[in-house]
Specification:
This protein is an alpha/beta fold. The chain has a six-stranded parallel beta sheet, sandwiched between helices. The chain has a six-stranded parallel beta sheet with strand order 9-8-7-10-11-12, sandwiched between helices. It folds into two domains: about 5-175 and about 340-359, Glycogen Phosphorylase B (Rossmann fold, 3-Layer(aba) Sandwich), CATH 3.40.50.2000; about 190-340, Glycogen Phosphorylase B (Rossmann fold, 3-Layer(aba) Sandwich), CATH 3.40.50. It contains 13 helices and twelve strands. Strand 11, helix 10 (about 295) and strand 12 (about 305) form a beta-alpha-beta unit. About 40% of the residues are buried.
């Protein structure tokens, strides 16, 4: 079907650089065209601002670059190209109130607001503390009320959105199940798996006692796929560099996927994409019972949900000693990924939602 309807997406970041944006609207855009929708992304930041934001300090340079992006984006929003539906992913600008979104609404097109992070929870950036003060957490509720329809990444945020808007749909992050071919979690020497970034690696510290205990009794190295080295005192770690073009690289030869999470206000709302990656690879998952993990993992079916160090140890030891259980849970994990988290399955729902909103 040729693309006949136009989706215009206001996004905060440059295409290809922000994991959340890349996983949602940028992925959706590639798959919406067969459903009759063309997508145009309108980013707020430019190359200069993007480079500065992840550097420590340089407040004056950041403020100057932010102001320049605001001025440019204001001109863009006042003269948007024709579109049938306006989508705002997280926010139209990285700082400030919902002014640009209100101006964009003057086009008369219906607006869909997509939220994948709990931006209504105050957060202080470790590299730009002043920047966090300008984030306006109240802006999220304004966008809930302003939108004709709200999309959230999980039901926790969906419930929060429904306090301000009755029209809410949950669309989780998806995965290309064909690129994540299932491994055999019952074959070979036992190996645990964690994948993430250096910024999320501190979550691993929450399970160090359980991992030490497990490794003291049996051979169970932890493969860490990360953009930098990770040190866990007293834990055998096998580091493997992250490959951006192969999100499943390093999964082979692994048997159990780990999703440890620090108990922070922000994390209580989060969707942890690594859990879905493990499911797609056919790995049983052991995850902390927090955020969307109870939505993704049925305890005792695709893996286990745990809280205490004792529970971490007991469930990891149970899976370590039972290859048949790992195989059974791995098969259930793969089936769930295909049925519930494959990109084509969710994009069909998104296209139907956009069609309905357009009418």
């Amino acid at each position: 079907m040729p693309a006949t309807r136009r989706l215009l997406a206001l996004v905060p970041n440059l295409p290809g650089v922000a994991p959340g944006q890349r996983a949602r609207i940028e992925t959706w855009a590639r798959h919406l065209e067969p459903h009759g929708w063309s997508t145009q992304l309108v980013p707020f930041e430019d190359e200069r601002l993007h480079e500065l934001l992840y550097e420590q300090g340089r407040a004056a340079d950041k403020a100057k670059a932010m102001a320049a992006c605001w001025q440019r984006h204001l001109r863009v929003v006042l003269d948007l190209p024709p579109h049938d539906v306006l989508l705002v992913y997280r926010e139209a600008a990285l700082v400030g109130p919902a002014l640009l979104e209100r101006l964009a609404r003057r086009s008369g097109a219906p607006m869909v607001f997509d939220l994948d992070d709990p931006t209504f929870v105050p957060y202080r950036s470790p590299t730009s503390g002043w920047f966090s003060v300008l984030k306006f957490p109240g802006k999220t509720r304004s966008l809930f009320r302003m939108a004709d329809h709200v999309i959230t990444i999980n039901s926790l945020m969906g419930g929060e959105a429904r306090r301000d808007n009755a029209s809410v749909t949950v669309i989780p992050n998806t995965i290309d199940v064909d690129r994540h071919q299932p491994v055999d979690p019952s074959a070979g020497e036992l190996r645990l798996l964690w994948t993430g970034s250096t910024t999320t690696a501190p979550n691993l510290q929450t399970v160090v006692p359980a991992l030490r205990r497990l490794q003291a009794e049996r051979r169970a190295p932890l493969r860490v796929i990360c953009d930098g080295p990770v040190q866990l005192e007293g834990v055998e770690v096998q580091h493997q560099p992250f490959e951006p073009d192969r999100t499943d690289a390093g999964f082979e030869g692994c048997h159990i996927g780990l999703v440890p999470v620090t108990d922070l206000p922000w994390n209580r709302w989060k969707f942890f994409h690594k859990a879905v990656q493990y499911l797609a690879a056919g790995l049983p998952v052991v995850a902390r019972r927090i955020g969307s993990n109870p939505e993704v993992i049925t305890d005792g079916v695709e893996g286990f949900l745990v809280e205490s160090q004792d529970e971490w140890y007991q469930r990891l030891a149970q899976l370590a000693d039972d290859p048949a259980l790992r195989r059974r849970m791995g098969e259930a994990a793969r089936a769930k990924a295909v049925a519930s988290y494959s990109t084509p399955a969710q994009v069909v729902r998104l296209a139907a939602l956009l069609d309905e909103v357009k009418r």
